């Protein structure tokens, strides 16, 4: 986790992608107007390569006090069964890191991969080896952005909380993207109370030493019919859970500085709701 670059001055809220209630050309001004201060750029299908356009986008974000992170392509599997597929995944993640640097985004979220027919330990070892190689390339090319393996919502995916913490401990410049909805459904609906959140955060703090500066994904989520694994994202108040309020309370009481990314279907609308919930706890401190 050494060499982390995402330094936050306060809690920041923003959507996973351009806002739904404003045209893209005035996205950052609109986010500022509604009280938000971040956005996760979605490069999940294709990584943009026009450095001039990326720099312009980053400049517009900074002018409106919007921090940027970037979500790398879904087509990444650092524990793939063939060297060719691992190599392709490394290259796609490197391209995402280059785009992030060009736009001034300090953190690149990515899906680590799958266990496939391997044991958990073997899949994790292969992914960590790929991350170390990638970080060496990034350092040699002066790409100073952190990599964020995301906690994943399906038990078949490499990306349990233990997995991403081990990646962060093993590779400098790696800091997890903590998706609480994914953690919730991966384990069969484990987040039911404030204490459940505290247990997760205590584990992160114990392993990494600090929980400030985290990139956090949040939405409510519907599980598969088995009760284990992610089926569909829902907006806040859907009843599926997890409940954001206990987490907001912990954030306010402990002065935590996170970037909270709304992965709700209504993006910035739920970002605003989360910010309002958080601020209601700040007033009651």
From TrEMBL:
Biological process according to GO: base-excision repair
Taxonomic source organism: Candidatus Methanodesulfokora washburnensis
Family annotation (InterPro entries): AP_endonuc_2, Xyl_isomerase-like_sf, Xyl_isomerase-like_TIM-brl
Pfam families: AP_endonuc_2
Superkingdom field: Archaea
UniProt protein name: Deoxyribonuclease IV
Domain Xylose isomerase-like TIM barrel: 30-265
Organism classification: Archaea, Thermoproteota, Candidatus Korarchaeia, Candidatus Korarchaeia incertae sedis, Candidatus Methanodesulfokora
Gene Ontology molecular function: DNA binding; DNA-(apurinic or apyrimidinic site) endonuclease activity; phosphoric diester hydrolase activity; zinc ion binding
